[in-house]
Every structure is written in C-alpha cells, then in structure tokens.
Amino acid sequence: MLFISRRESRVIVLFCCFLVTFLLLEGRVAYLQIYKGKELAAYAVKGRTISLQIGNYYRGDILDQQGRSLLDRQIKYGLAVFPALIESSASIQQLESLLPDRWRSSQPFLLPSHLSEEEASELLSQNVSGVYPVPINQYYGPGALARHLVGYASGSLSLGKALEGSKGIEKLYDTELAPPDPTLNLGVVVDRKGEAIKGRGVRLRGAKGTVTRGKDVVLTIDRDVQEIVENILDNHNVKGAAALIDIPSGEIRALASRPSYSYHQGKLEGEEFDRSLALYHPGSVFKIVVAAAALSEKVVDPAEKFNCTGKYVYKSGEETSCWKEEGHGELTFREAFANSCNSVFVEVALRLGPQKLMDYSRLLGLEEGIVGYSLPGFRGGVVQFGNLSGQVGNAALGQEGVSISPVNLAALAATVGAGGVYQKPTLVKEIRDHSGKTDRRIQSTEPRRVLSDSVIRELQGMMELVVTDGTGKRAQVPELGSAGKTGSAETGKNDEQGPVVDAWFVGYTPLQNPQLAAAVFIEGGGTGGGQTALIFKEIVEALQKK
User: Fold this and answer.
1) Quick count: other Cβ atoms within 10 Å of Cβ 471?
2) Using N-to-C axis directions, what is the helix angle for 453-469 and 406-417, rounded to 10°?
3) What is the four-CA torsion angle of 5, 6, 12, 15, rounded to 10 degrees?
4) E strand or H helix at 62, and its extent?
5) What are phi and psi of 224, to 5 degrees?
6) Secondary structure of residue 130 in the 3-state scheme
7) Contact at 8 Å (CB) between 220 and 425?
8) Which conformational region is residue 487 in: left (phi greater than 0), alpha (psi within -120 to 50 degrees), or beta?
9) Which residues contact 118 (CB under 8 A, 6 or more apart)?
10) Given CA atoms 153, 154, 156, 161 in this order, what sign does their dihedral have?
11) From CA 366, how far away is CA 380, in angstroms rounded?
C-alpha cells in the first residue's frame, strides 16, 4: 500500500494551484488577444485620437432605369480643422485667407469649403498640421436631371447630422436613401505629446467602425429621354410641362417641368413648383373621355351629323361658345372631334349626363395616382361637377369641375394607344443596396381593359384624324404617324394681350403598334394645335435619332 506524506501532499496541492492559475492567465491572454484584440486596439487608438463628429454624407443615389445617376454627383472637398494641432503662427497665416475666426476655438470643426480636387491636393501638399481636406459627396450639379421630380436633401453636415430629404423622391424615400448611421467620426491620431503623427492624416469611421451607406432608388425614368425632353422645353423657353409614358409597360420615361431650379450649397434658385404633377383644366383634351363614354353608351353614332352655329344654347337661354365664332356648320361626330367643336360635345355630354361622365373619368384612371409616388394628398386628377346643364357643358370642355395632371393625361393617351387597356403609371422600379443588389421591388398594378375593341378602334381613328385633318396637324410625325388631341383651357386670368389660355397636346406614336404616349402642357400657350403640338413632334423626332 502506497502512502503519501503530508509534505508531499502539500507540494501536489501547491502545484495544482500554480497550474490552475497559469491556465487561467493563459486563457485570459488568449481571450484578450483573439476575441477582444481589435476592440482593445480601437480603445487604445481612441485614447490617442482627437475626433470630430460630422453628418454621414454617404446618402443613396437616385438612378434611372439603366442604373445611371440623375443627380450629377460630384466630389468636393471640405476642411476638417483641428485648432489644437495647428503648430505655428506661420501655419495660421497660411490659413487666414481660407479659415474664419473659428480656428481660435479649441474644438474641431468642419468647414464646407467645396474645394476642387486640385485645390485640395495643393493644400495637402503644404502639409499643414491640423487642417485636412475631406472628400464629400455633393449632389445636384449642373448636369442633374428631373430636378422637380427628384427634389433635394438639405441640412448641415457640420452639425453632426446627415442630410434629410426635403422634397420629391428625396423626401418620399428619405428612410431608404439616408445612411443607417447618421454620423461619422473624423479622427486624427496623436502621439504622447498630443501632436499629430506625421503621414497618418485623418481617419473616417462610422459608429461601429465601418462607414454605412444609404440605399439607391431606381426610377423608370430614362436619362437620355429625360434630357431630350428638358432640352426641347428649354429651347422653346416655355412655362409648362411634359410627361412621356412607355405604352407596353406603363412606365414613365420622362417627367419635366419648366422653369426649372437649382439647389447648390444649401441655396435654392429658380422655381420649385412642379407643373408635371400639378392639376390643370385639360380643355378639349377631355373630349377624349366624352367621346369614349358616348361611343360606349351608344348615345351617338360616329357618322351622326350635327350643325354648329358657333354656340350652343341651353334650355335656360345660357350659351356656350364654340372656339370658331362663325361655327363649323354641318359636320359628323368624327369631324367634330377632329376640329374640337365645342357645340357638338356639349350636346353629346348632355345626352350622357353628369354621372356617366364622372364614371368614365374614373374608369379611365384620371383620378388615380402613380405607382411608387404616394405623397400624402397627391391625386392625379379631380373630376367632380354639378348636375346643371351649364356645369355639364363646362365639364365636357375640360373646364369647371375637371382638373387633371399632365402625367395622367399622358396615361389617357397611353390607354387609347394600348387598345383600350389602362395601366396605372409607374415611376419607381426598386430599391437597391450600395452593392447593387435589389432590396425591394415596387410592384406595378395589373393592366385592366376599360374600353371595348369597337370603341377603341373608332377612338383611335378619331385621334388620328385630329393630326391628319384637324387641329393637331403640327404634331404629325413623318413615317411613324401619330394620333392625339389638342386642348385650350381658359384660366380666368388676363395679361397685356387679353385672356390667358393654357395649351395642351396629348397623343401617341407610332400608329402601328403604339409605343410612346405623351402630354405637353404650356401655361398661357394659347391654342393646343400650336407650340404644344410642335413640341410633341420634336420630342418624337429627337428620340428617333437617339
């Protein structure tokens, strides 16, 4: 039998204690090195870092359907200034022309100087301690497109907050576009003496070490088409709007409003009002709805003859004048549509009655909004009028009680071009993360048939007649052909020349297998068969050359 002395047992116990202590120490060291190493290193650096907190400027982009930016994003350089690190009076003298009196402060600050890359490189080459150029994304440069639609984001990065969407898509999708972490830290590593370590520069870190970026919003807009439309509107120097819709998909390819505006360095210049989404009286363009309803309800035959004397007289004795003072004389319903005869359309509208007119307006989607653009209170149109004969007559001419946006009138033309199938206009396709991966798709609505084949064939023929023999001849596109409707809407305003009348042309092209629908609107443009029809033609011809 083996006995262990008391002395030996003490040695064994002592050895075990040492072994356990050693293993615990080794485990602790391993834990600190393997699991906590990066964190401890960060704490060590933090302890020797002077930091400046600024807003996270890595906001998401707004892209066209092909992934091209509409914002004309550019890199400009601000200055991160750390007054405590400015070493000498000589350095201060170098900066006096560039920096305000804030350099006397002990707190770091960001000076958004908007320096170019060349200017930043020159400053960096001077190696001035305590002043560091910082590349910052700047948006809405001179090449930015669809400004009213895109909107803008505003705020001050120097206050430690990310920019916030203030208008348009920037506001509507601010949650997606904004970076998850609203702040960034600019840090300069210093030695034990509190002096900046040469060659290290300034470090950019997010709240969790990495810099987060906002997501991108992809629109159905085509940058090339948008640019063509904007250039043509600018060439005509008009106050108005244009909306273009791809008929097969129902996607909006261009949405432009003029006059435009610019937003640069927190300053807004120009006119923010977006006419492409605003509501206006459509004038005689609304006769498309009257014709569609009358043909569908069989209250008129296309070949039925009428006699226009230059005015329609109601039973009450009130009158509605035709735009042609001497009247059109005898003409069929087809010819009345092509020549935009007011008298005939008041008579036909009264046959229909107010409820049918409003029902067909809604059936054709005139009051619906836009897929992907659900701003509170936004409506694509309002059709609401009374039962009195005069009110029905005014509504038939697209005046009192009827207000529609250019984009919804473009959708009306697209419905006719698509063979009587309505599709709600789509503006936003998807949300992407910064790597280009789809985060969320915006689902378009299902197309719905709203007009029969027989009605739509007749309506298409009438809109073609407008361009070949009626009021819209200037919208004729050689080879492709086009169809449409002109409109002139009274505003109740007057200028030096007399009453102010808004002008419209709404149509589609080509005649065979229509692909593109458009609405062109000009405030104070007068007759719809003039400048608006010409702009429609110029847009289509420019797109042919694209």
Assistant:
1) 25
2) 110
3) -140
4) strand 62-63
5) -65, -45
6) coil
7) no
8) beta
9) none
10) negative
11) 6
Type of residue numbered 71 = L
First-to-last C-alpha distance (Å) of the chain: 104
Instruction: Answer positive or negative: Cα dihedral of 402, 407, 413, 416.
Output: negative
- Residue 382: what residue type? V
pTM for this prediction: 0.85
Mean pLDDT by 10-residue block, N- to C-terminus, for the chain (546 residues)? Answer: 58 66 64 53 54 88 96 85 67 54 66 74 72 83 94 87 92 95 84 63 77 95 98 97 98 97 84 95 97 97 95 90 91 95 96 97 96 85 94 94 97 98 97 93 94 97 97 95 96 86 97 97 90 97 91
pLDDT computed for residue 44 by the predictor: 44
pLDDT at 40: 44
Q: Answer whether 90's CB lies under 8 Å from 198's CB.
A: no
Query: The sheet that has 438-441: what strands, in order across it?
Result: 62-63, 216-219, 428-432, 438-441
Under DSSP, is residue 275 helix (H, G, I), strand (E, B) or coil?
coil
Task: Map tokens 């997501």 to a residue.
Answer: 215
What is the torsional sign of CA 48, 54, 57, 59?
A: positive
Q: Which residues contact 58 (CB under 8 A, 6 or more apart)?
A: 137, 179, 211, 212, 213, 214, 434
What element of type H or E holds 243?
strand 240-246
Q: Provide φ and ψ at 43, rounded to 5°.
A: -60, -40
Q: Which residue has the tokens 């992907």?
A: 372
List of residues 6+ apart from 2 with CB closer than 8 A: none
Q: Is 442 helix (H, G, I), strand (E, B) or coil?
A: coil
Q: What is the pLDDT of residue 100?
A: 52
Tokens of 68: 């091209």
Closest CA to 133 of 185, 81, 89: 81
SS3 of residue 544 by DSSP: helix
Phi, psi of 372 (to 5 degrees): 90, 0
d(CA 121, CA 105): 25
Contacts of 258 (CB under 8 A, 6+ apart): 230, 233, 234, 238, 239, 240, 241, 275
pLDDT on residue 28: 62
- Smallest CA-to-CA distance from 46 within 203, 182, 175, 277 is with 203
β-partners of residue 498 are: 495
Per-residue confidence (pLDDT) for residue 1, from 0 to 100? 41
pLDDT score for 245: 98
Q: Which secondary-structure segment (H or E) carries 429?
A: strand 428-432
CB 521 within 8 A of CB 536: no
Q: What is the DSSP string of 361-421?
A: HHHTTTT--BBTB--TT--SEEE---SSHHHHHHHHTT-TTEEE-HHHHHHHHHHHHTTSE
Paired with 267 in beta bridges are: 264
Q: Provide CB contacts within 8 A for 309, sequence distance 6+.
A: 327, 343
Task: Classify 198 in phi/psi space as left (phi over 0), alpha (psi -120 to 50) or beta.
Answer: beta
